[in-house]
Amino acid sequence: MTSGKDRRPFEGVRVVWVTALGISARSFLQPHFRRLRENGFDVILVCSGDDDARAAATNTGIRHIPVTIRQSVSAVSDAAALWRLWRLLRRLRPRIVHAHMSKAGLLGVVAGWLAGVPVRIYHNHGMAALTAHGLRRFMLRAVEWLANRAATHTLFCGESTREAALAEGLAQAGKAHVLGSGTISGVDIAKFSPDRIGGLREGKRRAWGVPADVVVVGFVGRIVPHKGIATLLEAWRRLDAKHRERATLVLVGSRGSPDMTALVDAAVAEDLGVKHVGWTDDMVGAYSAMDLLVLPSWYEGLPYSVLETQAMGLPAIVTRATGNVDAVEDEVTGLVVPPKDPDALSRAMACLIDSPEERRRLGQGARRWVAGHLRQEVVVDHMLRFYQTVLAGTD
Fold first, then answer.
1. What is the spatial distance between Cα 387 and Cα 373, in angstroms, rounded to a whole number?
2. Domain residues of the chain, as ranges?
3. How far is CA 269 from the centre of its chain?
């Protein structure tokens, strides 16, 4: 029999984490699953039944219950998912339901409210509603408003997104929180380290067909409109020929819609030094081959490509958008330019292509900042303490 002295502090406290995509669980949530289990929580992942979801559960020793939550809007499938989540939560009776991103976040906290779950956490990963227009904007705002009202607590990945949600009337001040300096699960600074670049840089560049003396400007992310792909490609075209002769733009990311695919293919075909290498799970190798990162997105939560790049000791150029401004301090850890401004972006890229000293200075500042604020163990500790606080409020 386990003595009271040996008992873990949250032994048997059940928490259900809800997300739509297994890749999200595998990429961002595993450190939290491990820490919660170490402290006695009974953790259950409710997610799609794909390989990534199963891997996330197996890797961390938690249970996985598959429920399909579609990314696209569908009244029938969304109602079915809500029904399944409600029935599941009624049966499991967790103390906490923690639901991630807009669609799964809304369905998860509404199902939790209907099932009487005392702690319902909506974890916002970034707000598309801030830059959307027309009917799409109305629908996205409605999702955010409802999710925030059905939740007992809302977590934001960065302070700028929290402030924007409050200013738009989508969040409620008493419920809206950023843990520490933000992010979802922090950065493993031992894995993403400048010390690893030397052994990987040459091999990855060879695989990409990039000479050793060329400056690699990297982009990492989905090839979708809100990542600012059109602005990035136009900014690259506006570089002087002397800069393009000394640099290559490498896009690392899976293809998006046919329109975006055509946009990228056209840029590659222009023979201006643009390469699209697809997605890779070897992100340490990819960053090792780069000299700087560019992320000209319209909004973010707190962009992991930027944080991981900074942990590698490399600078990033980002737009002055929610999430991005929480990740980069202008001229200290990187450069910040206006969104949808190809001329400003082109000038910033030219500046860093020209100056290895400036890349080194900004990269060193970036590494110090990430190591000081967003180390993974610090971020998961913030989450554990947050759980302790909210559970104390339900006793």
1. 20
2. 14-186+376-392, 194-373
3. 30
- How far is the CA of 205 from the CAs of 181, 210, 283, in angstroms? 33, 5, 13
**Whether pTM exceeds 0.90:** yes
Say which residue the tokens 């303490």 belong to.
385
Alpha helices in the chain (DSSP H): 22-24, 30-38, 51-60, 75-92, 102-114, 134-150, 159-167, 197-208, 229-237, 241-246, 258-269, 283-288, 304-311, 324-327, 342-354, 356-373, 376-392
Q: Which CATH entry fits the domain spanning 194-373: 3.40.190.10, 3.40.50.300, 3.40.50.2000, 2.60.130.10?
A: 3.40.50.2000
CATH topology of domain 14-186+376-392: Rossmann fold (3.40.50)
In this structure, the number of other CB atoms found within 10 A of the CB of residue 38 comes to 12
- Torsion 115-118-119-124 (CA) sign: positive
Q: Angle at Cα 338 formed by Cα 336 and Cα 342, nearest 5°? A: 105
Q: What H or E segment, with its residue span, contains residue 278?
A: none
Identify whether the C-beta of residue 105 lies closer than 8 Å to the C-beta of residue 17: no
User: Which amino acid makes up residue 371?
Assistant: A
The 3-state DSSP class for residue 365 equals: helix
pLDDT tens digits in sequence order for the chain, 395 residues long: 444 455 678 999 999 999 999 999 999 999 999 999 999 999 999 999 999 999 999 999 999 999 999 877 788 999 999 999 999 999 999 999 999 999 999 999 999 999 999 999 999 999 999 999 999 999 999 999 999 999 999 999 999 999 999 999 999 999 999 999 999 999 999 999 999 998 899 999 999 999 999 999 999 999 999 999 999 999 999 999 999 999 999 999 988 788 998 999 999 999 899 999 999 989 999 999 999 999 999 999 999 999 999 999 999 999 999 999 999 999 999 999 999 999 999 999 999 999 999 999 999 999 999 999 999 999 999 999 999 999 998 86
Long-range contacts for 274-278 (Cβ within 8 Å, ≥24 apart)?
274/233, 274/236, 274/248, 274/249, 275/208, 275/209, 275/210, 275/248, 275/249, 275/250, 275/251, 276/223, 276/250, 276/251, 277/208, 277/250, 277/251, 277/252, 278/252, 278/253, 278/254
330 DSSP assignment = B
